[in-house]
Amino acid sequence: MNNSAMHPNVRSLRAIYADLTRIGEYAADDMVLHKAERAFVRDAAAGRAVGKEAAVAHERELVRMTGGTLVMDVEHITANDHFGAVFGVLRAHRDGATLAVPFCGVWRFRGGLVTEHWENAYDVLTVEAFLSGKPRTDPVHGNED
Question: What is the pTM of this model?
């Protein structure tokens, strides 16, 4: 696709997924990030990062936890003025273990800025185990290429 014909929110999402720590450049000050593990925490507030700085801190922590190896291989992005969806595979390496789990990021925009983001991993428990340094020994249910 011709880059000039691309919706501006698609361009923003491409930049964010190329470097997750840049999310703050495209976020409204009051954005809310709904973490992938939100279904497994008792305190609903613990499943969210509220505010641009909290969202940036969350993304930086994810990158740090993987020793800087976190890569979001984007397969497809669609967006309009209001919403965006990104499909791909989350990949990382840690202590000799490899992670490859499909994801779908859902985004809400207002005036060209991100106001909400929902992280969705195909297998959240596998991602959580990997990030905690205790990779699951049962088969991963994601895409492992």
Answer: 0.87
